[in-house]
């Protein structure tokens, strides 16, 4: 087989939001383009591959497996060498129906396509799958464009999760087949529903404790972009699939919370209705969240190990999320991170060397990117960005940890805070409501000059608390890369 020779470009962008462009370097991997490229495996130099990345996984031999929206899985060699002549592509599987996720299971690959999770097996070791085995099915499959399936994602107990998009428009029927549900792959290969109320649960990722989280997207019943803890027995807010509670096998029953009331009130009205761990406020933090990837670079990707990166489709960006547990429930803060990718950020995967592979595709919607698809590798340069590393809730305020020591000047008046919530309703998206300014009564700087305690008056549980900073500099005179953060205060800690 002849290899397709990719074009590799190096570039660094000055980000509009002020992200320190010296902290991360980007390497773009693009295939040569051709409008009428062949679909056979006999590729020739110059023929194109529409690299609409919809899933990524590292194989045991160091190759990067990529599935693309048009139904193929490719194995990429040499992507970490940095040399264009070292990158090669091999077609591993084809004929799939819009695969949107990959996971390695032993020597096999599990791929989530529209109608099932499929086990791809290469028995003779020639680099081409020769067995396509049904691993899991049992949900409604229709001609509705938005009836996607996402995953698979393994949790810390060994369970494998799948999430299902609701159908939208005239062809949608969300009252059958577990649309809008998240569930497990059962021992018999069936889909086992666990929780529902999802709209477009596009990305899944697990934290260090093995708990799984998913991103949803703003739209009907979803006023802004949420990151939820995926677990059994709960409702996430979208009522479009409420009819499935009548299905045989529904794991629980519940009454729906009333619409057209503030989110905190609606949450309190239903025992199973749970808040997001984090809200990503609309426009301020993007519009359409995608993949979730945990940072585990042993410091090679900055001082953020253990935190989440969340892909952003419309704004072609990546955001960062810090989570903590308060009274047994997850909550935390979100921060902008990297912007101005050449296409919508759809999938992410850390490489063994600590760099981040970012898969791009504009299919199905539009983004601020200038290309339709692509693959970008992001590397830490060794320069630490000056940023808020963590934001923790305290009984009387918040504690901020910075990545670098702070200058002494101007800290007393450097912080402002407000809070807001959303309206719970069936409308598409929603504005911030019930906004209130909060007085910061004290600013206390720790001896290490990296930690700051803010005493905040009249904090409100179940409200998003927006932190704004101004004039903060490091001891070396650097400005903060991102001067704002948003903390979703589900519960105020008792101590």
CATH topology of one domain: Immunoglobulin-like
- Main sheet characteristics: 9 strands, antiparallel
Total helices: the number is 1
Q: What Rg, in angstroms, do the CA atoms define?
A: 23 Å
Name the structural class: mainly beta
Query: Which second-level CATH architecture of one domain applies?
Result: Sandwich
Molecular shape:
globular
Give the end-to-end Cα distance, rounded to a whole number of Å. Answer: 64 Å
Poorly predicted runs: 1-20, 31-46
Oligomer: single chain
Q: Kindly state the mean pLDDT as a whole number? A: 91
- What's the CATH first level of one domain? Mainly Beta
Strand content: 35-45%
Topology, number of strands: 34
User: In percent, how helical is the residue content?
Assistant: under 10%
In short:
The protein is mostly beta strands. Helix content is 1%, strand content 41%.
């Amino acid at each position: 087989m002849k290899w397709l020779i990719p074009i590799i470009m190096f570039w660094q962008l000055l980000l509009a939001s002020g992200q320190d462009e010296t902290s991360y370097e980007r390497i773009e991997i693009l295939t040569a383009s051709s409008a009428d490229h062949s679909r056979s495996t006999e590729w020739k130099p110059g023929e194109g591959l529409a690299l609409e990345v919809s899933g990524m996984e590292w194989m045991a031999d160091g190759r990067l497996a990529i599935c693309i929206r048009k139904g193929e899985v490719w194995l990429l060699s040499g992507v970490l060498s940095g040399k264009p002549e070292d990158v090669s592509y091999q077609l591993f599987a084809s004929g799939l129906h819009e695969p949107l996720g990959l996971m390695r299971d032993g020597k096999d690959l599990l791929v989530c396509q529209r109608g099932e999770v499929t086990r791809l097996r290469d028995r003779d070791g020639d680099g081409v799958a020769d067995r396509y085995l049904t691993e899991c099915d049992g949900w409604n499959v229709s001609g509705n464009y938005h009836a996607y399936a996402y995953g698979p994602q393994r949790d810390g107990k060994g369970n494998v999760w799948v999430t299902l998009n609701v159908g939208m428009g005239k062809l949608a029927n969300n009252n059958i087949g577990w649309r809008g549900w998240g569930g497990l792959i059962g021992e018999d290969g069936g889909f086992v529903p666990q929780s529902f109320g999802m709209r477009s649960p596009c990305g899944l990722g697990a934290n260090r404790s093995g708990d799984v989280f998913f991103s949803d997207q703003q739209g009907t019943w979803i006023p802004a972009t949420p990151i939820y803890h995926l677990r059994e027995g709960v409702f996430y807010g979208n009522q479009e699939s409420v009819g499935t509670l009548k299905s045989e096998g529904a794991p629980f029953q519940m009454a729906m919370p009333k619409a057209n009331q503030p989110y905190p009130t609606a949450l309190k009205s239903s025992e199973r209705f749970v808040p997001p761990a984090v809200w990503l406020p609309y426009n301020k933090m993007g519009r359409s969240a995608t993949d979730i990837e945990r940072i585990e670079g042993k410091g090679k990707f900055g001082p953020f190990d253990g935190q989440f990166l969340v892909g952003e489709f419309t704004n072609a960006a990546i955001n960062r999320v810090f989570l903590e547990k308060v009274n047994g429930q997850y909550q935390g803060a979100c921060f902008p991170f990297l912007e101005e990718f050449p296409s919508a950020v759809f999938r992410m995967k850390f490489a063994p060397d600590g760099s981040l592979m970012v898969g791009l595709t504009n299919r199905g919607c539009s983004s601020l990117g200038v290309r339709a698809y692509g693959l970008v590798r992001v590397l830490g340069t060794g320069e630490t960005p000056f940023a808020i590393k963590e934001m923790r809730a305290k009984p009387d305020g918040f504690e901020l940890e910075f990545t670098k020591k702070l200058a002494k000047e101007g800290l007393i008046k450097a912080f402002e805070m407000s809070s807001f919530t959303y309206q719970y309703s069936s409308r598409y998206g929603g504005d911030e409501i019930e906004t209130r300014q909060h007085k910061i009564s004290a600013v206390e700087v720790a001896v290490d000059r990296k930690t700051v305690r803010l005493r905040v008056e009249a904090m409100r549980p179940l409200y998003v608390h927006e932190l704004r900073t101004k004039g903060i500099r490091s001891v070396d005179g650097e400005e903060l890369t991102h001067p704002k953060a948003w903390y979703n205060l589900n519960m105020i800690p008792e101590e």
